[in-house]
Amino acid sequence: MKNIIIIPSIEEIITINKELEKNFSVNKGALDFIISKIKSKKPSNDRKKDIAKCAAILWHDIITNHPFLDGNKRTATESMLMLIELNNYELRCPPN
Q: Where are the domains of the chain?
């Protein structure tokens, strides 16, 4: 049970985009593919590394696959932060 990674649902990602953008349009198939890609990752013995890889896949694939009409980078970043938070981690960045 410890190695289970909690991934934001398609509905949660759509809600993030709706809150960020005025022009809403979504390709649910593209989002479903991204989530399936993350779920298919074989877990390793390093949970922290697995979460980082899943967060990176989510962020990169939303940006490059453009499942939304607008706001893909903002939605990708917020979705990635949600995945990290759901798994009880936080992203710390130095001010520089």
A: 18-86
